[in-house]
């Protein structure tokens, strides 16, 4: 008696055979992946063998050493022990060279290597491909297009606007300190810098310091920044699909949406204003345009050169860097001065002598406060607003001491480590403004609060102006 082709025994045999084939393929793929990871680790070990590295776990690398609360103390120990650079293993098959030597910094920043994509792909959903993340010729075109927005003739009239925003913040502080002697200033400084940016770069009217929507935007930026750092520390969250399914991934998506809603509203409002009768011609007749108008005119006059996506990416980038990074820098400057009241008093006396007649601060005053500028620079040395930047080597590099690296290696330029390197700055933890006294000399790349090379901060001059105000 023959067995039917559809009998249960034959069906089960077919399923079993299929499972065996799938299992075999899975095992082969697993072995191939394991071999790739092994070869990758061996390549990294060979590529980085010139540079010192503390003992690391074969899988976790130095992860446990660089936990959130203890990262900076461990970094400073490395800087003291290995004065030029050292290897940092993120985990078993991913490593980078941590650099904090001015000669090394100068060599890397003098090249045209792209920024490290492993980090910036986490930022892209938030700020898009704007000036911060662009590379090559497109970056050069956007940089050249936007540079006129930071011309001296543009920045000079902003001084009065900045001073008005500071006064609003100080009035709020006077009311708050009458109720409590302790004040968390970063949120208030963020609103002040956002207020300044909105008025100066985006032609906004009114004050955002009392606007609830602006406060939700600042909270969204704070959330996204925290989530990006948290994601960098989690090996499993490196995968985009896995991350999207996590609570942190949902939180990040929602925070990005809130940030985009804010910037979309700013762009929409300015477009509507320019469509009013006579407004377009009036703005076009100006000698210099502000940041958003440059972007909108580029879009209107040559639609193919700047897409709507490009426009929003530049607005998202500038709005974040223009207010959050500046707010961080100002907050740390105030902290440094409050921690050293003798220097704070000298700054106060210097500024009061300039404004003895009660006049408001002007552009010309900014170069007449040398001691205040020295204190600002020393605070930015101790607490750099951007503590690290990264590059991925596009070609081999050999440093002045003969150590070399092949293409493909990630280089993390630790500005915080550089500014606290005892070989570069004697007694680096001491607040000493005389390091920046007129006539003092130092390595060209010993002090990099605004990065260096061709990709330095486009707002360098504007950011320094933001910091030089008559603080109480």
UniProtKB/TrEMBL annotation:
Its cofactor is heme. It is found in: Endoplasmic reticulum membrane. GO terms for biological process: lipid metabolic process. This is Cytochrome P450 family 4 subfamily A member 11. Belongs to the cytochrome P450 family. The lineage of its organism: Eukaryota, Metazoa, Chordata, Craniata, Vertebrata. Gene3D superfamilies: Cytochrome P450. PANTHER family: CYTOCHROME P450 4A11-RELATED, CYTOCHROME P450 FAMILY 4. Keywords: Endoplasmic reticulum, Heme, Iron, Membrane, Metal-binding, Monooxygenase, Oxidoreductase, Transmembrane, Transmembrane helix. Coiled coil: none annotated. Heme binds at residue 457. GO terms for molecular function: heme binding; iron ion binding; oxidoreductase activity, acting on paired donors, with incorporation or reduction of molecular oxygen, reduced flavin or flavoprotein as one donor, and incorporation of one atom of oxygen. It comes from Bos indicus x Bos taurus. The keyword Signal does not apply. One of its GO terms (cellular component) is endoplasmic reticulum membrane. The gene is LOC113889930. InterPro entries: Cyt_P450 (IPR001128), Cyt_P450_E_grp-I (IPR002401), Cyt_P450_sf (IPR036396), Cytochrome_P450_Monoox (IPR050196). The keyword Ribonucleoprotein does not apply.
């Amino acid at each position: 008696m023959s067995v039917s082709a559809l009998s249960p025994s034959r069906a089960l045999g077919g399923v079993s055979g299929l499972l065996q084939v799938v299992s075999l393929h899975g095992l082969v793929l697993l072995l191939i992946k394991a071999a790739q990871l092994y070869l990758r680790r061996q390549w990294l070990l060979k590529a980085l063998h010139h540079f010192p590295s503390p003992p690391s776990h074969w899988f976790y690398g130095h992860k446990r050493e660089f936990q959130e609360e203890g990262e900076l103390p461990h970094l400073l120990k490395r800087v003291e022990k290995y004065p030029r650079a050292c290897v940092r293993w993120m985990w078993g098959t991913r490593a980078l060279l941590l650099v904090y030597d001015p000669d090394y910094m100068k060599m890397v920043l003098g090249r045209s290597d792209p920024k490290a994509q492993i980090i910036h792909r986490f930022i892209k959903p938030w700020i898009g491909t704007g000036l911060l993340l662009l590379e090559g010729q497109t970056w050069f075109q956007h940089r050249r297009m936007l540079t006129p927005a930071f011309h001296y003739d543009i920045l000079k009239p902003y001084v009065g606007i900045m001073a008005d925003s500071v006064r609003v913040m100080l009035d709020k502080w006077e009311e708050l300190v009458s109720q409590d002697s302790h004040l968390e200033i970063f949120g208030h400084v963020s609103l002040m810098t956002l207020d300044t940016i909105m008025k100066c770069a985006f032609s906004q009217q009114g004050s955002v310091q009392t606007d609830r929507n602006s406060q939700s935007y600042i909270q969204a930026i704070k959330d996204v920044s925290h989530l990006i750092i948290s994601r960098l520390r989690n090996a499993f969250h490196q995968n985009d699909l896995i991350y999207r399914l996590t609570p942190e991934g949902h939180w990040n998506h929602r925070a990005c949406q809130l940030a985009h809603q804010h910037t979309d509203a700013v762009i929409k409002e300015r477009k509507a204003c320019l469509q009013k009768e006579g407004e377009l011609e009036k703005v076009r007749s100006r000698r210099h345009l502000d940041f958003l108008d440059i972007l909108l005119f580029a879009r209107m006059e040559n639609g193919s050169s700047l897409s709507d996506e490009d426009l929003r990416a530049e607005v998202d980038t500038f709005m974040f860097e223009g207010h959050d990074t500046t707010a961080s820098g100002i907050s740390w400057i105030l902290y440094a001065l409050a921690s050293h009241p003798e220097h704070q008093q000298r700054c106060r006396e210097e500024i009061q002598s300039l404004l003895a007649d009660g006049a408001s601060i002007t552009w010309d005053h900014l170069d007449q406060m040398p001691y205040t500028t020295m204190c600002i620079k020393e605070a930015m040395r101790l607490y750099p607003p951007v503590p690290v930047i990264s590059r991925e080597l596009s070609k081999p590099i050999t440093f002045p001491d003969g150590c070399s690296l092949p293409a493909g290696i990630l280089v993390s330029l630790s500005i915080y480590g550089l500014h606290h390197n005892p070989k570069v700055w004697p007694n680096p933890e001491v607040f000493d403004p005389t390091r920046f006294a007129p006539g003092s000399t130092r390595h060209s790349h010993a002090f990099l609060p605004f990065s260096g090379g061709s990709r330095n901060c486009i707002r360098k001059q504007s950011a320094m102006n933001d910091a030089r105000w008559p603080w109480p």
